[in-house]
Task: inverse folding
């Protein structure tokens, strides 16, 4: 089974996909958080590669990126960490990164290090469908997933993107940047209904899901839920001591969505 | 429907979140329609003539020419436009376009404040709500322009993230646009960002070069030998160059901010120190570290304090059609003072980078050669900062 199939299979039940910023507050804590989230029942984990200018992020993840970069995080250190823990973590691991850290590293070299360390897929928020071929030629060859994103504003683009997606489809639930919101409105459901007309690709909702209640609402129409800022907030508050707090939060989500 | 376009050679494109894709596609469609719409063109031309004060004059700097003893120097006086810089050319076009598209609100980023002031002005004129994002650092350096924008009815939001300068103001404006694309147009101030912005801004600024060509033809009966302009994102430079790109005998020189020197960590000289990357919606050349993290840059000039350059400039550089040279703070301040004393023209500190290079370059050319230097803006906004640079304790 290749990475793309492994990711798709993670959606055999409603999937919980937590996001943490790599090396926030340090690489050891990230490593422990990955084990904790996997044990708590996460189905896929997204590890954010910190970037100097994360334009799609709200203040919570932006601050996490700043902390991680200040702690000396580099993509090489993240590759090394993933490689070290990979054999003990059974669920798919994804990198979420802006395109410049990939481009600067060299797309081909970056993808080959993903394969070497055991990364199953990439989410690149500033690499839209129209521009992704220059990376996709390498992810295709390596058989790792390049996850597509759709937004409430995608409109006529939705069927094209959905039909060509792999692994799962990242459904941006609301306009604006990442961050916690009180409610998601009806955008997300309408968007997913449209996807399901053309594709059986699993749909995971992200951007703005922060509470167990919001997660339940999301999985009433989606196949999975991505939670980032709410977890990063816990890490921001407790730092190295955040493990048990993140565990409690993750378990509450897993329990309530299935 | 999904078409990869908006490239200048290897550079450009649109590297933006999916949330914004349809907004830039809609903008591209609207622009392609209105740029050929006689009513739009005539409204814009009327605004440029009757409101901005175009054409701007092409001034023969005779004293400067004599003093330097080399090529004849002409100054393209964009500093004489309404609001005091070339920024008004682009802003009148974009705000008019936004209005035609049914938008009621414009947002903008600003560095020195010139683009913010111009956007606030056009918004006041055309009855649009206006919000300007400005790095906290720049709101301090350019406090007077902050008040000017507020006077014009705009709301100014100081941005604290990152280096609290121009790039962070762009980040904040892009985030705001992603959250409110229904009623809001992002009035980008330079030839940067995702397609179609580099093309739209270039087209609206190309009036500078067209006028240079006509005016010099009327005075000298020929083309210039060299056109020189300062480059941050590069809008006044592309505006000055564009008309001459096909005239291979005209050399084109962009002057970038070398800050305290290109060998120091404190500079913003993208072509000298950067490499190809993807940032702020475009593939172009950026100052960055080995891991693709965008570098904090520095210049005395808030308007040139940006870690990238527009994609069309990156292509002109790669093709060898234009040349880009670094100019330090010290050289720019010297030129700021020199032009003030010699010609009675106080240039913007941004424009002083172009003047500084022209001063050196003119001396190397024969007297029958002709250089045109674009004075992109006036220097009133910089007077207090230059005084402080020279050790005087003057505040606005």
Result:
């Amino acid at each position: 089974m290749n990475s793309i199939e492994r990711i798709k299979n993670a959606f055999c039940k409603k999937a919980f996909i937590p996001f943490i910023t790599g090396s926030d507050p340090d690489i050891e804590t990230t490593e422990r958080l990955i084990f904790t989230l996997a044990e708590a029942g996460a189905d896929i984990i997204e590890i954010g590669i910190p970037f100097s200018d994360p334009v799609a992020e709200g203040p919570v993840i932006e601050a996490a990126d700043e902390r991680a970069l200040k702690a000396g995080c580099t993509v090489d250190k993240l590759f090394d960490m993933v490689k070290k823990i990979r054999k003990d973590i059974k669920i798919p691991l994804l990198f979420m990164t802006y395109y410049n850290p990939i481009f600067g590293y060299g797309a081909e070299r970056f993808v080959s290090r993903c394969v070497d360390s055991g990364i199953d897929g990439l989410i690149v928020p500033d690499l839209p469908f129209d521009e992704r071929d220059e990376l996709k030629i390498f992810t295709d060859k390596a058989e790792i997933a390049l996850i597509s994103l759709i937004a409430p504003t995608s409109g006529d683009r939705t069927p094209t993107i959905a039909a060509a997606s792999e692994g799962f489809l990242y459904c941006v639930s609301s306009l604006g940047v990442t961050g916690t919101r009180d409610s998601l409105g009806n955008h997300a459901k309408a968007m997913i209904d449209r996807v399901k007309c053309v594709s059986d690709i699993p749909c995971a909702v992200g951007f703005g899901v922060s509470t167990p209640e919001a997660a339940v609402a999301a999985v009433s129409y989606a196949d999975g839920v991505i939670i980032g800022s709410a977890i990063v907030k816990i890490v921001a508050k407790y730092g190295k001591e955040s493990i048990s707090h993140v565990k409690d939060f993750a378990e509450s989500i897993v329990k309530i969505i299935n | 429907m999904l078409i990869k376009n908006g490239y200048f050679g290897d550079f450009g494109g649109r590297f933006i979140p999916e949330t914004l894709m349809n907004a830039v596609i809609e903008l591209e469609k609207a622009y392609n329609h209105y740029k050929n719409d006689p009513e739009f063109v005539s409204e814009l031309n009327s605004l440029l003539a009757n409101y901005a004060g175009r054409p701007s004059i092409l001034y023969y700097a005779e004293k400067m020419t004599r003093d330097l003893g080399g090529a004849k120097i002409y100054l393209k006086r964009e500093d004489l436009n309404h609001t005091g810089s070339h920024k008004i050319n682009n802003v009148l076009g974009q705000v008019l376009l936004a209005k035609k598209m049914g938008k009621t609100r414009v947002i903008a980023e600003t560095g020195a404040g010139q683009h913010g002031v111009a956007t606030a002005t056009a918004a006041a004129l055309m009855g649009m709500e206006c919000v300007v994002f400005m790095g906290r650092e720049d709101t301090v350096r350019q406090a007077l322009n902050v008040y000017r924008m507020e006077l014009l009815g705009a709301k100014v939001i100081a941005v604290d993230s990152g280096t609290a300068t121009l790039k962070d103001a762009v980040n904040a404006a892009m985030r705001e646009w992603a959250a409110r694309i229904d009623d809001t147009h992002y009035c980008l101030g330079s030839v940067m960002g995702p397609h179609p912005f580099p093309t739209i801004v270039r087209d609206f600024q190309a009036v500078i070069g067209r006028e240079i060509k006509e005016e010099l033809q009327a005075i000298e009966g020929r083309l210039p030998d060299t056109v020189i302009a300062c480059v941050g994102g590069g809008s006044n430079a592309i505006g000055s160059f564009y008309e001459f790109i096909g005239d291979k005998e005209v050399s084109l020189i962009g002057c970038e901010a070398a800050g305290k020197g290109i060998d120091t960590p404190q500079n913003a000289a993208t072509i000298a120190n950067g490499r190809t990357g993807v940032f702020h919606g475009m593939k172009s050349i950026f100052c960055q570290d080995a891991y693709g993290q965008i570098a904090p840059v520095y210049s005395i000039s808030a308007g040139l304090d940006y870690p990238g350059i527009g994609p069309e400039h990156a292509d002109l550089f790669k093709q060898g059609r234009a040349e880009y040279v670094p100019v330090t703070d010290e050289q720019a301040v010297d030129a700021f003072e020199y032009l003030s004393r010699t010609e009675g023209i106080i240039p913007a500190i941004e424009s002083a980078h172009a003047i500084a290079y022209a001063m050196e370059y003119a001396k190397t050319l024969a007297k029958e050669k002709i250089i045109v230097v674009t004075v992109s803006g006036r220097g009133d906004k910089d007077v207090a900062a230059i005084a402080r640079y020279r050790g005087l304790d003057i505040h606005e």
User: Anything to note?
Assistant: DSSP finds 16 helices and 14 strands in chain B.
